[in-house]
Amino acid sequence: MKKQIVALTAIAALSTGAAASASAADYSVKKGDTLWSISQNNNVTVEQIQEWNNLSSTLIFPAQTLQVSGDAQAASESTYTVVKGDTLYKIATEHGISVGELMSWNGLSSDLIFPGQEFSVAGQAVAPAQASAPAEQAAPAQDSGQTQSTEGVSGTGGEAPSSDAVQSMTVTATAYTAYCNGCSGVTRTGIDLRANPNQKVIAVDPNVIPLGSRVWVEGYGEAIAGDTGGAIKGNKIDLFIPSQQDALNFGVQTLDIKILD
């Protein structure tokens, strides 16, 4: 019996070793990771990780998979299959491209995507994805995330997500536009708001809400924490609204938000 236990233990150890070896070129980002810490743990440079993963910045997200070996780069694909929890911003950032490029290459007219869709992430168009929305999403809700209207912003549109949020809080909210004097229209994380006026983006204090987080905002819906601002400190956010007049009409409001990831 003892010999049998020892033999089984050895087999298990060999299996574990094989699995570890097979995935050695991949690394799943954990909360608190930085490109520098990942590079040090894998004996590579930050620049190498950025090159192997087509990253144009050092912004990374928990659960993001990174190549940490040059051997895996040769096997990288020019297409990406959407998984649950993905957003266009997250996919674009992981592949070092803009949301506008991703939408253009794949013939997208909105930011509504579904698991199973296949997107080109290298500039070559692919056939339109055939994946369909889940039954409960086939008919868009009142606040579907495809359009941005004044009523949806200042009213009560956008049901709170049923899943548990990472954190909930009450914030003071104002609004801004991409067409003010001196504005470039490009956010801190590289989103071109003029090219993507329907994108839901909020400016945040990164010490309170991490950049790149998905955030549900009362009356606004699900947005990306993709911008910052000199006056955005503490529990305060700034909502992007395409129309300058609508942004002015928004004023200052107290809203509930939920940080989703």
UniProtKB/TrEMBL annotation:
Organism: Jeotgalibacillus salarius
Signal peptide start and end residues: 1-24
Record field: compositional bias (Low complexity): 131-142
GO molecular function: hydrolase activity, hydrolyzing O-glycosyl compounds
UniProt feature, compositional bias: Polar residues: 143-153
One Pfam family linked to the record: 3D
Stretch list, region Disordered: 131-166
Keywords of the record: Signal
PANTHER family xrefs: CELL WALL-BINDING PROTEIN YOCH
The protein, known as: LysM peptidoglycan-binding domain-containing protein
Gene Ontology CC entries for this record: outer membrane
Keyword set includes Transport: no
Gene Ontology annotations of biological process type: peptidoglycan turnover
Domain called LysM: residue spans: 25-68, 78-121
